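Format notes (please read before filing issues)

Several people have asked whether sequences and structure tokens are stored in separate files. They are not. Every record keeps both together, in the order shown below: the sequence lines, then the token lines. Line labels are part of the format and must not be stripped during preprocessing.
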Amino acid sequence: MSIFGNLEKYQHSIRFHTPGHKGRMEHEPIGLAYIDMTELKDTDCLHRPQGVIDQAQKRIADVYKVAESRMLVNGSSGGLLASIMASFSPKDKVLLPRGSHLSVYHGLMLQDIEPVYVYPDASLPAEAGTIRLEDILAAEQKHALAGLIVTYPTYLGTCADIAKIAVWAQDNAKILLVDEAHGAHLALCEDYPIAAERTGADIVVQSTHKMLSSLTQSAVLHIASNKVDRAKLDLYLRLFQSSSPSYLLLASLEEAINYAAKNAREAFATIAKSREMFSRMLAGERFELWQPKGIYDPAKWVIFLRDKGLEGREVLRQLSEKNIEMEYGADNFVLAYCGIGTTKDDIIKLSHALNDIEPNKKNATIQSKYSYPPATARMSMKEAVAQKSAYLSVQQSAGHISADFVVPYPPGIPLLVPGEVISDEIAKMMVCFNQRGQTVLGVHGGEVKVIQ
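Then the structure lines:
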């Protein structure tokens, strides 16, 4: 079947995954092909904007109350790559949570930056991307940090105390980059965590398609301080974005932010209020809506499976049969993303569908461990990927140096990055993941790529 044919099957599905528009794009024109254009006299040029794109970027900056904004057509990934390359120099030491997005690792690898990791110590994958001020202070005592990269919010909605972190970065003249891919809505809402661009962060990158309503692959980068070298940043944005940027994405991005500026506050207030209603409607002995103790985004719903006969991927399958698609499913939870297009009726239908799920007592829930052992780097990522490599079975890999990223899902925390030694403990974990049939990026047919 064609790509379009497969996509068409989901035309009337109820969606609790990204993009945030949920298939409802009232502000988008019908029949998008007629605006799929190129650089003409009146269409401006993304890489040297002087007309309508320049005006759109200024309006976006005004909405988010930042110095300048850049429209992105290669997702947050392109924005993060450009931000890292423009902000740090080779051999700089940069602090980041081990659970950072892979595009962050790719940027560090390309610029040959030395990462300093904050490893998670938690029973929840949601905690993997958070970072505390205490972590930063402890790292600063051991390393001469050039700056830090913070994921805010995490994939499951937990939030660092970004305001305190931003004050520390300003007081200590450190660069603060924020991967706010899942938080483009925060600045437009009441009673949600503060947006990173309002705290004094230097660069903030947002995937507007995740929680707002722009087309997938559109995103925005905010320059929020005077420490940013704009000329260098724009150079790298040209490097990491297409020389033929899609006007469909640019138009969608502009309209989505205009729409959000008028409607996001009410839409996300409804979502936040609906959490309690949704929690009450769930069968309490089978499901539990997670309420984090710290700062969190109320639009991200982690639904724990308390019934031992339930498993996340099976729940996803049964929900899909009921025409409801979720963002993610793991061993003992499923994840619902409520975006600007989510309605109260969607939420009610989800609660009813969950309560109708049939348990399978033969497949008891597996409780996963998410605290991974720290890995030792023998060489930099950039050096490692340039070496000759070969594949070994995971059973034989202990003692070798990884030539690729090894990333188990859940929770998406790299178990290994290129250049790190595969310890006995890590090799045993890979064997365990492989035996369970768990998805692990970097493991192919029970083999892992190592340096020869």
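For reference, the curators noted about this record: The two ends are 41 Å apart (CA to CA). The chain is about 35% helix and 15% strand.
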